[in-house]
Amino acid sequence: MNQAYFLIPGDPDRRTGGTIYDRRIMAGLAALGWSVTLQRLDATFPAPAQAALAEAHDVLSGLPEKALVIIDGLALGAMPEAAAAHRGRLRLVGLVHHPLALETGLDEPERQRLYASEREALRHVRHVIVTSPSTAQALASYGVAAERCTVVSPGVDPAPLAAGSNCGEWVWLCAATLTPRKGHAVLFRALARLRDRRWRLRCAGGNTQDPAFAADLRTLAGELDLSGHIEWLGELETAALDAAYQQADGFVLPSFHEGYGMVLAEALARGLPIISTTAGAIPSTVPPDARLLVPPGDETALAEALLRFMDEPALREQLAAGARAARQTLPNWPTVSARFARVLEAVLAE
Hints:
By secondary structure, the chain is α/β, with parallel strands linked by helices. It folds into 2 domains: 3-155 and 331-349, Glycogen Phosphorylase B (Rossmann fold, 3-Layer(aba) Sandwich), CATH 3.40.50; 170-326, 3-Layer(aba) Sandwich (Rossmann fold), CATH 3.40.50.2000. Helix content is 42%, strand content 17%. The strands form 2 sheets. It has a 6-stranded parallel beta sheet, sandwiched between helices. It has a 6-stranded parallel beta sheet with strand order 9-8-7-10-11-12, sandwiched between helices. Helix 6 (133-139) links the parallel strand 5 and strand 6. Helix 1 crosses helix 14, helix 2 (50-61) packs parallel to helix 4 (80-86) and helix 4 (80-86) packs parallel to helix 5. 44% of the residues are buried.
């Protein structure tokens, strides 16, 4: 029986794209007969205290010789010394959802520090798994050769087509953690230009990752006189999030970067038209005939795209038809887990 150890920082049950991917892959490998062990690292990654780094080193030291170890990129990029110390004894694999230096809101010195740290850490792993071709391309500048990097995009659970709101106003769903990278502030400013229209924005996403920013978003909504238009759903469990997708007329995600964008694929699985940005992997995640994309941070272009969707019935039907076609091509989790397993088997065979 093949054995794999996963090192994941923080609560593995939190509802972020990265942790959902990690959980589904671990479950998929177990279903394929692998023995899978989760090793939790400190929640302070990717900005760990010295004690968290020491703990990560101890975790690696406690694993058996030649163990196959998959380290989530949130931790790996911040622990190059530990990776270097164990590269010969363990079979290390990096799982990069998106490079740390591409997080929104970093100042230039911090961005350069994260870039240098992650570049160094990636030198010490035998292989790197990423979730999109755009992330693979981004890692080329980190010295990760193409033959040392494999794309294993997320899977999607089958879902019924969304029924829509049917309530006399347009209902937009934005499912994203309340952090600067997701672009909520840009979306609010775009929607402020459309206050005279009948619409509602439903924001599904947790506020614990950056509580101060989440509070600022609520303040901004009030300043823009949008409080009556916005519903704050919080972090939803699976059934409640499914219901939110079902009741939406369209999906909007104005991110500044996405390593893949699992919620976009989930929206496609329900046949929802998508308005998003050209950032990161979004153009490759959402096919052209199911989307309207604007430059990240461009509130004027975003407002125009939202207005076009509301005012042009033919465009709405074209995008909905594109989304319905795309849902037929989305991979399921068992298929994705089998791809992931083949990468790990190749590392074991080296």
